[in-house]
Amino acid sequence: xxxxxxxxxxxxxxxxxxxxxxxxxxxxxxxxxxxxxxxxxxxxxxxxxxxxxxxxxxxxxxxxxxxxxxxxxxxxxxxxxxxxxxxxxxxxxxxxxxxxxxxxxxxxxxxxx
Amino acid sequence: xxxxxxxxxxxxxxxxxxxxxxxxxxxxxxxxxxxxxxxxxxxxxxxxxxxxxxxxxxxxxxxxxxxxxxxxxxxxxxxxxxxxxxxxxxxxxxxxxxxxxxxxxxxxxx
Lengths: 113, 110
Prior knowledge:
Chain A is mainly beta. Chain A has strands at about 5, 10-15, 20-25, 30-40, 40-50, 55, 65-70, 75-80, 85-95, 105, 110. Chain B has strands at about 5, 10-15, 20-25, 30-40, 45-50, 55-60, 60-65, 70-75, 85-95, 100, 105-110.
């Protein structure tokens, strides 16, 4: 079975802090994705990566950056956390073609105080 | 880009009834349509998917239909059980990513 592991289930940070969310997958997938999930808004794509050191903006990249130094690991960075970034963050991975299923981690619930 | 609309936002059924969730998409080039189930405290899990060269696909109590002309696809769950209670998301594959609907909360009452 595909395993996508997010380093923290719950995280509480303060406004202005730099926040790192980590994600690791064990299926040698080329693609990795970061989404945020908010009530009534569904899943919105923040950034994705189709290869090591490659990144593409999704629908809502403002206030975020990403890092992919190894194929299995994809990090989401909040450069200066703000309260409107309080949300559930989901990481996913898939094989290269867009019509391949994405496999999700269980999410990190991030609260910015 | 792709836009996916999902209805209804909530659906309540009695155990044993059928449930239908409908989605429409905008990009005629989309060719892959997965459905995900998300239980409380967990990430979305793929339950079934369909590609545009197929009109219907079944897996036990779950089926998905696709109408490419009308650009809509639907999830059908028969003989619903309380453990089917969850949030369900449809999605469409655009150029390189998935676009998700806003989700349907399905409640199955015993």
